[in-house]
Amino acid sequence: MENHKNVTEFVFIGLWENRQMELLFFLLFLLCYLAVLMGNSIILVTIIYNQLTEQPMYYFLCHLSLMDLCYTSTVVPRLIRDLAATRKNISYNECMTQLFTAHLLAGVEIFILVSMALDRYVAIVKPLHYLIVMNRKRCDKLIAMAWAVGFWHSIALLLMVLSLPFCGPNHINHYLCDVKPLLKLVCKDIHVVSILVIANSGIVVFAIFFFLFSSYILILYYLRTRSSAGQRKALSTCSSHVMVVVLFFVPCIYIYILPAGSENKDKEISVFYTVIAPMLNPLIYTLRNSEMKSAMHKVWSRMSHSELNK
Questions:
Q1: pLDDT averaged over the chain?
Q2: How is 199-248 classified by DSSP, letter by letter?
Q3: CA distance 197 to 195
Q4: Whose C-alpha in 26, 41, 172, 198 is 20 to 30 A from the C-alpha of 34?
């Protein structure tokens, strides 16, 4: 605790220093957050109500929606509050908690996306072995592994930041406690620490993105032998996943592959994976998935029927 004895709280500079802009975006981000809550809750209710969790694709989608809800809720409510507040302060302990929680949930989400890619690869490339390979026990193990890897990633970052001395400026040029803006406030040379952050976050995210991209190239290669109807169905499912992966990974790579001292648009770009991606994911997965649309229709039809019978 001696390392941060001169800093007991941090102050966010926020996305904009213009008061009128902040009030305008207060309403915009409030609507976006409500859309995240509603969209992902609808996905969860639809999948659980129709017992679609027995299918691996929807089992992982259910977990992805849950992660989107949790991850966004660690960042956006405080962002909305700060947009309306004159002083955007956060205590040292709250900052470290937000750093750990956000990276934990983001890490879990990344490996859920990997699991979803694996599911699609097996379903298309090894269809006869699909039920054996992607059984419920293996799906549970993949989710457990996602939490384990997410925890390892976030605890490593947290312990590294806790060991750093914060003894001077306390204004964070961001709207959340993330490792790169925090490193700019450290009162010692951060060259080695910056390399460790790139290794822990940037290189790992880039490697996973490359793995996912490669898996979809292989899927496209194997689709050449399928019928036109089979190709359309597979491409519809895979294209949804590719859009979600690009929305989440490309901004992450841009932010975490660059060193902490570099001047870039980190806080503006981060809005893509903290707000926009969780908001668009339910639309992407439902509008391009006829089975999801049919399942949602069943849920609302049953609810409407039960209301009429009252």
A1: 85
A2: IIIIIHHHHHHHHHHHHHHHHHHHGGGS-HHHHHHHHHHHHHHHHHHHHH
A3: 5
A4: 172
Asked if 167 and 6 count as a contact pair (C-beta separation under 8 A), the reply is yes
Exposed e or buried b per residue across 154-183, where buried means at least 16 C-beta atoms within 10 angstroms of its C-beta: beebbeebeebebeeebebebbbbbbbbbb
CA 80 – CA 279 distance, rounded (Å)? 15
How many residues make up the chain in this entry?
A: 310
DSSP H helical segments within the chain, as ranges? 19-49, 56-84, 92-125, 130-133, 136-162, 179-183, 191-197, 204-222, 228-256, 266-269, 271, 277-287, 290-309
At position 229, the amino acid (one-letter code) is A
Q: Flag whether the pTM goes above 0.70.
A: yes
Residue 116 has pLDDT above 60, yes or no: yes
Please report which confidence band the pLDDT of residue 47 belongs to, taking 50, 70 and 90 as the band edges. Answer: confident
In sign, the C-alpha dihedral spanning 284, 289, 291, 296 is positive
What tokens does 208 get? 């996973």
**162 vs 122: CA distance, rounded Å:** 42
**Residue 76 in this model has a pLDDT that exceeds 60:** yes
- Give dist(CA 76, CA 26) in Å, integer: 10
Q: What pLDDT shows up at residue 1?
A: 42
